[in-house]
Amino acid sequence: MRTYKWDNIEQITFEINNRKAIILPTDTVLGIISKVPELIYKIKKRPKHKKLVKFVDDIKNIANLNDKEKKVISKYWPGPLTIIKNNIGYRIPNHPQLLNLLKSIHWCYSSSTNLSGKNPINNIDQAKDTFIKNINNIVFVDEPQKEDKPSTIISLDNYQVLRNGIVDGLSIIKQLKD
To answer: pTM surpassing 0.85?
Structure first.
């Protein structure tokens, strides 16, 4: 069971680039990330129709954002806001070490750390117990998880709030429509 601290960023980068999943703290809930979406689906027992979010290192990595969308979203990023654009979810998390990792890998798929349909896990020890059967495919970053609220999800495809989390989704939609 490989477990690292954030000061091992090179090793964490190596692991994700070598098709491992990483369970780590984020600015919202404990997350699982990977470059291999099938791995996250397998580990979480997640139905394929439930999409994953892409963590990106820069808003420039999202195609087809108009100027107003860029301006409004930039107020909340990095931060606990997930956007849906062209039916794909994106987020730039506000977590210094995770942002450092993203600068190395540029993007990855992400989800909350839980078995599909269950409550998110916010403790590395509980995550290790829950995912013991997939231990060869998972690496852990054992640092404290400070937050336990999910990101807000808004759709830029139809300007709707899909989930209200840490930030007020209706306020963001209003800014986009004004």
So the answer is: yes
